[in-house]
Amino acid sequence: MFKILQKMASTGIVTANYPAEPANISERFRGRPAFDFDKWKDARPAAEVCPTGAISLSDKGDSRKVTVDYGLCVFCGLCAEASSDQAVRITQEFELATSDRRNLVVTAEYTLNADRAHRELRKVDRQLVNAETDVERLGQKARETIQKILGRSLAIREVDAGSCNGCELEIVALNNPVHDIERFGIQFVASPRHADMLLVTGPVTRNMELALLKTHRAMAEPKVVVAVGACGISGGIFGVNYASLGGVDKVLPVDVYIPGCPPRPQALLHGILLAVGHLAERLHNHRAG
Amino acid sequence: MMMQAMSAMFEALRQKFGQQVQSVRADGEGEIYIVLGDADIRPITEHLRGEFGARLVTVFAEDRRATEGVFFNYYVLEQKGSAQYLIVRAPVGADSLEFPSLSAQLPSVNWQEREIQDWFGLKAVGHPNPRRVALHDNWPDVYPLRKDFPIETVLPPFEGERHIYRPAFGEGVLQVPVGPVHAGIIEPGHFNFAVAGEPILYLQLRMFYTHKGTEKLFEKLPIHKAVFLAESISGDSSFSHGTAFCQAIEHAADIEVPLRGLVMRTILLELERICNHVADIGAIANDVGFVMANAHASRLKETLVTLNEQMTGSRLLRGMICIGGVRRGWEQAQLDALRNAVDSFACEFQDLVDMIESSESTRDRLEQTGVLRPDKARDLGIVGVGGRASGVDLDVRRDHPYAAYARYSFRVPVYQAGDVWHRMQVRVDEVNESVGILRSAMEDGLQREFRVPVPAIPSHRCALSAVEGWRGEIVHWIRTGPDNHLQRCKIKDPSLNNWPAVVEAVQGNIIADFPVINKSFNLSYSGTDR
């Protein structure tokens, strides 16, 4: 007993204060690949190496449409290594969660030279629908919502609908003393009957489809669904095949998507806090009508 | 020398089994193929097991109808005291679609033979329990790993009957169904407990809920992209599975990885091991109510995954392994961080172990709980941590050295008691050994190149690769095809062997101890289901 107390005292408080303070991450962490579309002379090498098809091309005559889908990206960094023109850069950005799947897709259109490299950038299309960019404010707002509207507790039911277990490791890490998600009044619960939020990792397999639907059905209204990781968003590297249905939104309506392979704990937290806003809105409507 | 030994083996087998044995040939240094002309492998595997003390590692099938007119079954055996694997290849007729089952004598291949039934439509004749395992009972009759089954096939909604569990009878006997969605944040699987009051009489398992067509997908992806698929076989073993896969390709294409690459792989493999072992030690303590120990263990794990990120850019060590070595070198600052992290980890880990060992109530709950007897472990073919706690003295790092393991000395802990406490003890010992390996490896060969350029991968080569993941023996077997693609990739995660150990270990224990017994094996559902 004495030893335990001694260890407690010598360890002190280790909990990080994200998102009130920026996340403490290694400078080598691979976050969102950023594309300098003006500078990009050729998208083919990056598209060629991309393991999941997150970078895809469609050529028509002397024009090319490049599609970058962060919902498929596994953050391997090969695109940056393959692009000799320095137009692709790996950033440290990880707060990529969004409520609109379209926000994760960027397209660019080029005219092409005879050697099929880019001649001129015609346009870039970024959706960014209702994106919440101020993370600190998001955290503050979510905390208030949980305090005032949800009676100081938000209950999450997690379902692995076919994942490799990578996402689960990071979700479990939310409960460790460093990330300590309970400081927000958020807890993971055993029963879907007690849950406000369904956190789903994918890809959704044929064998988990029914269990996922039943879990969702067992939850009381109002409820929100969060799709976690490249596989949960799009099927990721597994895609759609005889055994995999692809992303969670093939089966359930999804409120928030959290990119990553897997998303780091802070990215998960960011997505969960974003979903709290949706839940508050739904709760408000539910009570009103 | 090797040629001589092999022709001697061929002569001996010829004398005993006649024309059935067509040839014996070496494929690289690691494997000897024994090619049979007949599907009946029973007398030969029996002979090899008797004569060479060989252990059956894995069984799998391949559809070669297009080129050779038959299916092949492969039986991988490990000979005691030899680094070479024996691989017996037996044809399975495209008309008969039958092969003799070994499961009655060798329960360790029970699921693997049924997987062949489900995925290839080949019947295991004489199997004591030939029901579906790898495709669920409600699936239509499709054989997804046959070459004429396109991976993109969209199957209609399943209308077949769901699995019927064996009933358990008796006064006061109840059946408790659990899963596939569990109370905690874990992977899906279904457990059906038959209980008489508190004690468990009999546990029935249904796995493959996370089956996502992985082996088939390996045949579709170009090889360099398939490396990322290998990293996603089982999330907590990303680097081990990635290494197993890359090694297989390197064997097939005669690529020699430079020493620095091998040493870096060794370091990362050991980091993966200690990360997971520490988390498991905490989780085992947590499952018997010692929450404090888990808080410290999960904090330690967090410092390790932070280190992982510093060394590889990923907390799960992803995107670092590549064919020909590793993708990035290390700067001095990273090596310093590694050295410091290992030193402070070693101290903190000792504190954690002291804390758990000094807790009498924890010891009381873990000792004699979930016992897997050594004879059972041997019969069931249990490998890895669960095996070593029950007297099964196997470790791929020592028995079939890969990466840079031959350069370092380490002890393989083996206990006979086979309870939860000793499965934890194996982990504690292994973490300490890993720290030793890390310390030697950090001083070793880190100044030269870490990666070689990869040529086009030659077609029609087969290769086997094994890695001691933190859970146990991982085996990958590949056949290369044209255009940098694979024609077959067999993945054997240690979990596939070890689920029967859980069934065995829980018998007679109270249902409330199931979580801690399950955790003490901590098997991968995704690695099993693929």
Characteristic key phrases:
heterodimer, A: 289 residues, alpha/beta, Alpha-Beta Plaits, Rossmann fold, 2 domains, 5-stranded parallel beta sheet, 4-stranded antiparallel beta sheet, B: 530 residues, alpha+beta, Beta Polymerase, domain 2, Cytochrome-c3 Hydrogenase, chain B, 3 domains, 5-stranded mixed beta sheet, 3-stranded antiparallel beta sheet, 18 helices
Describe the protein's architecture and organization.
The complex is a heterodimer of chains A (289) and B (530). Chain A is built from eight helices and eleven strands. Chain A is α/β, with parallel strands linked by helices and 289 residues long. In chain A, the strands form three sheets. Chain A has a five-stranded parallel β-sheet with strand order 8-7-9-10-11, sandwiched between helices. The longest helix of chain A is centred in the C-terminal third of the chain and has 24 residues, at 265-288. Chain B has 530 residues and is α+β, with helices and mostly antiparallel strands. Chain B folds into three domains: 2-125, Beta Polymerase, domain 2 (2-Layer Sandwich); 173-206, no CATH class; 214-529, Cytochrome-c3 Hydrogenase, chain B. Helices cover 42% and strands 18% of the residues of chain B. The chains are: A alpha/beta (289), B alpha+beta (530). Chains A and B meet through helix 1, strand 7 and helix 5 of A and helix 5, helix 6, helix 9 and helix 10 of B.
